[in-house]
Design goal:
mainly alpha
Length: about 130
Amino acid sequence: MDADATDTARSPRGGFWNNLATGLKVVASELRWIVLGRVRAFEIRQLRRRLEREYEALGRLCEPLLKHIREGKKGRSLSPEAGEKADLLLKQIEFLNEEIAQLEDERLRSRRLFERQRARELGLEPEPENTREH
């Protein structure tokens, strides 16, 4: 074995065992991210289901009014009680839409942060954002 090969094997970034250890750390890290990502995806799916139920409730509430309009009749609106319920449903729908958007954005930001932290922990330099292929 020549001196260059020995230096590479002993260097912190070189050598089979260092590369194997780094690879295993990356695999373990990705498995952790997969679990975290699945938990967050489940949470978002639950919110989407809740949002769908709110839309359905709003549709059921407005159905009589929409039938009245479709039949070409005028002068009908929601009762005060139904109007309050519709306002509440609309506020809930708006809240759920905002919450879903925030969770999706947070998931993307968390992934980027996760990658940067892993690169730092492994002593690797992250690839610059503008040179990545999408």
